[in-house]
Design goal:
This protein is α/β, with parallel strands linked by helices. It has one domain: TIM Barrel, CATH 3.20.20.150. The protein is built from 13 helices and 8 strands. It has helices at 18-30, 45-49, 56-63, 66-75, 89-98, 106-124, 137-143, 153-169, 190-195, 207-212, 217-223, 272-281, 298-312, and strands at 2-6, 35-39, 82-88, 128-132, 174-177, 202-203, 231-233, 287-290. It has an 8-stranded parallel β-sheet with strand order 6-5-4-3-2-1-8-7. Helix 4 packs across helix 6, helix 5 (89-98) crosses helix 6 and helix 6 (106-124) runs parallel beside helix 8 (153-169). The longest helix has 19 residues, at 106-124. It is globular and about 50 Å long. The chain starts with a strand and ends with a helix.
């Protein structure tokens, strides 16, 4: 298996300077990560202004092209460069609200961002597009209230992913679906969506998100054996027993004993060793993306994740 570092560990603050990110890449390479997965944003002017490589404009303006960015990553010791780009319905809908785009254009905008991201991947010679197909549950309910979108959301989402997959195949890019605990397809609810998609669309399980939703990550790995891609390994002690997925701030609980949803890699309750063994038994030999979302000490965290891998993923 190949191991990638997720820039989600850093929170990808676009206001941080370019030198910060260039030093970060060197540390990622020194720590032995073979690839880099980036949460990609939708048409963000502010994202393009800063040093964070979170949108196509940022990469073009700071590195000239995706191809030159890929070479830069490899020169920093990240041997495979980009392992994948991750786009989400949540970011798309937030950007639409910021720019006063009518809600009816949601699926159209999903296709636009996917097309732009496919272009970056193709130019970089990378091949994985990861799609989170749903905004947050509460935001989806609020924005699309009174429209027919809610009634047909799953069907239209499936149609959109099929179109994205058709675009991606022309560039030799693989599309996979990743579901968060706060979305319309949380936990095992993703099964119904996946059943509507061609087998060429793969599943990218996020272990912490599945655990929070009360779903066994190992069971999901076994269920989708042979159809897995870009497995995200991260950790949590949290299980959403209070229906936080439907609140405005599901990742920042306002009630209950636990006020932090994510935790440092290896400190939570996710059975990552069991998940690793399940992947090995399934013959999986592709990317594992390692992430400690909202880490306090990023450099220490990236080293701790590698130490965990060397000790337990054998």
């Amino acid at each position: 298996m190949k191991y990638s570092f997720s820039l989600g560990t850093t929170s990808c603050a676009s206001n941080l300077a370019l030198w910060y990110w260039n030093e970060m890449y060197e540390m990622i390479g020194v720590c032995g990560y073979e690839g880099l997965e980036i949460p990609f944003q939708a048409w963000s002017f502010n994202g393009g202004r800063g040093g964070a490589p979170v949108c196509a404009e940022a990469i073009r303006s700071k590195y000239g092209s995706a191809a030159s960015y890929q070479k830069f990553l490899q020169d920093c010791g990240i041997r495979s460069g980009l392992s994948g780009l991750h786009i989400s319905g949540q970011n798309i809908l937030l950007t639409m609200l910021d720019e006063h785009v009518p809600r009816e254009k949601y699926f159209e905008k999903c296709l636009e961002l996917a097309s732009e991201t496919i272009g970056v991947l193709s130019d970089a010679g990378s091949k994985n597009l990861i799609v989170s197909p749903s905004p947050m549950f509460g935001m989806t309910q609020g924005v699309f209230h009174g429209s027919d979108v809610l009634e047909s959301f799953e069907e239209r989402t499936a149609e959109t992913i099929i179109k994205i997959n058709d675009m991606a195949k022309k560039s030799g890019i693989t599309v996979s679906v990743r579901n968060e605990f706060y979305g319309m397809f949380r936990g095992e609810l993703v099964d119904s969506l996946m059943d509507k998609l061609p087998k060429s669309v793969l599943y990218s399980p996020d272990l912490a998100q599945l655990h929070i939703a009360g779903t066994d990550p190992i069971a999901m790995i076994k269920k989708y054996a042979g159809r897995l891609c870009c497995v995200k390994m991260n950790d949590t002690e949290f299980v959403d027993k209070m229906g936080l997925f439907a609140t405005p701030l599901p990742e920042a609980p306002q009630e209950g004993m636990q006020q932090r949803v994510y935790c440092t890699f290896g400190n939570g309750d996710v059975d990552m060793v069991g998940a690793y063994n399940a992947l090995k038994n399934a013959g999986y030999d592709e990317w594992i993306t390692m992430e400690s979302k909202e880490a306090f000490q990023i450099e220490k965290t990236m080293m701790k994740m590698q130490a965990y891998k060397k000790k337990f993923f054998v």
